[in-house]
Design a protein that fits this description.
4-stranded mixed beta sheet; 14 helices; 8 strands; elongated
């Protein structure tokens, strides 16, 4: 494998499926958020604010640990690494390089990117850096991969898509597509197909054996990925198989076999539990969805109740007006609704009755809404709506709860 001829066009560093999956998850995510906001009458926004504060607190601890214990890569600290990092940013046309750190990996071969408030970070573990000693093109692959996450704004756009990323097949496919996009960024930074493939192989063969790895045989292992179980476990995972990633980087990606079609039938029943997979992340997702449902369902039911009672207030207003007119003209309470020429039933099926104190009772399916009269200094009748049997004060229409002495009729 030869070095990549020139630098890859930055505009072409997006895996073909990320754009379509990104658009689909974005549209669906916006729709779900709209339903949640309307269904909870905005209550979900309060919960999001609380979760954001919790996230801010936890994330601040991560950044504080990083700045207090890791080593910042700069012109004066590990200048060789800094030069490679700046070169990566230049190739990806990133004008302001993020802050870069190296942290003791304790045997973990990894790197990650994150953003806290307005500051972006790229973190390399010492094990990755040491493994790539003498292979700067391979180290730049890791740098470029993480810069790809930042350049594509994968973290900042996650919140909008979050409600639908748990969906079977869809969430995992979008996550895998993002990783493939970042591999293209890494290849562009590396400038060498050979070095990029071997950098991927480090995650398989370890920090020493990758140097003597037979790359062709390693890529050929993709032949196993067409099996039912390999297909299934990749479909529910947020990462492509490393052998597939190596095949795509080497230019042999089109030769990888198709997945077993029967694996899709099983995978469609497995919600995506996050890029790390596993039951724990899935349980967290179930818990959060359950909390949202616990807030949304009662809030929606309360909203429907208040809307129904508001219609009752409006529809019964003419009857209260007739009662008030009769009392002012005759100086006594009418014997019945028929006395004032009013119907004892509203259009929605609610029934009405008046007692000897001229309290108007409207019986709805859920309980009773009472309109209690009182005379002001000028002899005019004012009505206060209060809850009766079966209704709670918080279920009353806004006008009743905010100003119960407000005139509901004349």
């Amino acid at each position: 494998m030869n070095a990549v001829a020139g630098e890859l066009a930055v505009d072409g560093l997006v895996y073909r499926r990320e754009r379509s999956l990104g658009t689909l998850t974005l549209v669906l995510g916006l729709l779900v958020w709209a339903v949640l906001i309307v269904g909870t009458v905005g209550a979900v926004l309060l919960m999001l604010a609380v979760l954001w504060l919790l996230y801010l607190f936890v994330h601040s601890a991560v950044i504080a640990h990083l700045k207090g214990n890791a080593v910042e890569i700069s012109q004066s600290q590990f200048p060789d690494l800094y030069a490679q990092f700046v070169e990566c940013c230049r190739r990806l046309k990133i004008d302001t390089p993020p802050e870069a750190y190296i942290v003791n990996g304790n045997g973990i071969l990894n790197a990650f990117a994150t953003k806290f408030l307005r500051t972006q970070y790229v973190v390399l573990t010492s094990d990755v850096v040491d493994a790539m000693h003498g292979n700067p093109d391979g180290l730049r692959f890791y740098m470029g991969h993480e810069l790809g996450h930042l350049r594509m704004k994968h973290a900042s756009k996650q919140l909008v898509r979050w409600p639908v990323l748990w969906l079977p097949l869809l969430g995992a496919a979008y996550s895998r597509a993002r990783e493939s996009t970042c591999d293209l960024h890494g290849l562009s930074c590396s400038g060498s197909t050979e070095a990029a493939v071997r950098a991927i192989a480090v995650l398989s063969a370890g920090r020493a054996r990758w140097r003597t790895l037979n790359v062709a045989n390693y890529v050929r292992q993709t032949e196993h990925s067409s099996g039912f179980w390999m297909s299934f476990h990749e479909l529910v995972s947020g990462y492509p198989w490393l052998t597939k990633r190596a095949a795509r980087l080497s230019g042999d990606g089109n030769a990888t076999p198709a997945r077993n079609p029967f694996a899709y039938l099983l995978a469609i029943f497995v919600p995506f539990g996050g890029r790390m997979g596993g039951g724990f992340s899935f349980l967290i997702m179930v818990y959060i969805v359950g909390v949202l449902a616990a807030i949304a369902i009662p809030a929606y039911q309360g909203y429907v109740m208040r809307a129904q009672l508001t219609r009752v207030m409006i529809n019964s207003a003419p009857i209260r007006e007739k009662l008030a007119d009769y009392y002012v003209a005759n100086h006594r309470v009418p014997d019945s609704l028929e006395t004032v020429g009013a119907s004892s039933q509203l259009a929605d099926g609610s029934t009405l009755s008046v007692d000897r104190h001229m309290v108007l009772t409207v019986r709805v399916k859920q309980g009773q809404l009472l309109f209690v009269p009182s005379a002001d200094a000028d002899g005019r009748i004012r009505w206060a709506c209060v809850n009766g049997e079966g209704l709670k004060p918080e279920q009353l229409p806004t006008g009743c709860r905010q100003n119960p002495r407000q005139a509901a009729g004349r």
